[in-house]
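Project outcomes to date are best conveyed with an example. Our students and postdoctoral researchers have been running inverse folding experiments weekly, and each run begins with a structure described purely in tokens. The record below, which covers 302 residues, was selected by the lab manager from last quarter's runs and is presented without edits.
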């Protein structure tokens, strides 16, 4: 491991620090590379991919709340093949660890997408199991332990990359799902994805979003996300990457102390594109102040 107190290894992948750009909030890094020094990040998790790509949802896509953001983007993305052909190499050129996020509405979508991603120069595959499963009547793959384990096991058998499974906080028992994914072969877990929420336009007397419900992220969800990360981290023996409303170094430290090995930052980047750089600087300062040889010393200290 590097002498840098922020350096760590995640699933055999070296990260210069534990701060990762969250999927769906950073694109593939192109736009932010024009604004901040993205080479300083620990990793970049690319925009959520589906096998054939998607134009996303119609109508309103984002709506601010008093302490967060509702989104109904609908996984707008160029598709796995396009990512492999163009975006993966660009992400690699930026410097941080490269993480591809894969979703799907059927088992076949996931398996074909994972197989195609074997041809991409990525470090980790983040499996989004919050997508609605057509065969299960629209219920997300990650809602129940059995379905979560089944798709994890099948993708793990196909993929040549370390597999990090991204859990939905909307599952009735997230600890059971976490354990099921570990038993099915997941190399790491990331959580939480967005919470299901709703917004109403009182002047129009109708929901803001055409799909009625949307995903809530931002500072409002931090205490609940922190609780879930703590529960999952102490229930499994594989690394956990925490996320959910992180806006400062202090927030990131809370997730690390709760058991996460690294964190992902998303919504805060919209408000402040340089937020992650400030978090990295804050973590470095904390190590110096506390005399830590490596930040990982405080992971899971509770």
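After processing, the design step wrote out the following sequence:
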């Amino acid at each position: 491991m590097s002498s840098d107190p922020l350096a760590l290894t995640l699933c055999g992948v070296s990260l210069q620090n534990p701060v990762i750009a969250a999927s769906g909030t950073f694109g593939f890094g192109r736009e932010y590379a024009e604004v901040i020094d993205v080479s300083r990040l620990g990793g970049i998790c690319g925009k959520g991919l589906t096998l054939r790509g998607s134009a996303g949802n119609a109508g309103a896509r984002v709506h601010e709340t008093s302490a967060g953001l509702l989104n109904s983007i609908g996984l707008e993305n160029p598709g796995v093949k396009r990512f492999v052909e163009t975006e993966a190499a660009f992400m690699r050129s930026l410097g941080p660890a490269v993480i591809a996020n894969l979703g799907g509405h059927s088992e076949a979508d996931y398996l074909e997408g994972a197989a195609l991603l074997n041809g991409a120069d990525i470090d980790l595959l983040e499996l989004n199991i919050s997508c609605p499963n057509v065969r299960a009547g629209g219920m997300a793959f990650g809602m129940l332990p059995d379905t979560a384990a089944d798709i994890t096991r099948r993708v793990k058998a196909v993929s040549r990359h370390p597999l990090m499974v991204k859990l939905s906080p909307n599952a009735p028992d997230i600890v059971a799902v976490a354990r099921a994914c570990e038993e099915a072969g997941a190399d790491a877990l990331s959580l939480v994805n967005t919470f299901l929420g709703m917004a109403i336009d009182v002047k129009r007397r109708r929901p803001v979003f055409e799909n009625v419900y949307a995903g809530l992220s931002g500072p409002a969800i931090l205490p609940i996300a922190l609780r879930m990360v703590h529960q999952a981290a102490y229930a499994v023996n594989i690394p956990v990457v925490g996320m959910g409303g992180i806006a400062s170094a202090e927030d990131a430290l809370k997730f690390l102390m709760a058991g996460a090995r690294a964190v992902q930052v998303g919504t805060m980047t919209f408000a402040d594109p340089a937020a992650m750089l400030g978090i990295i600087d804050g973590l470095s300062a904390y190590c110096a102040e506390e005399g830590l040889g490596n930040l990982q010393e405080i992971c899971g200290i509770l």
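The mean pLDDT is 95. The two ends are 24 Å apart (CA to CA). The training component of this project remains on track.
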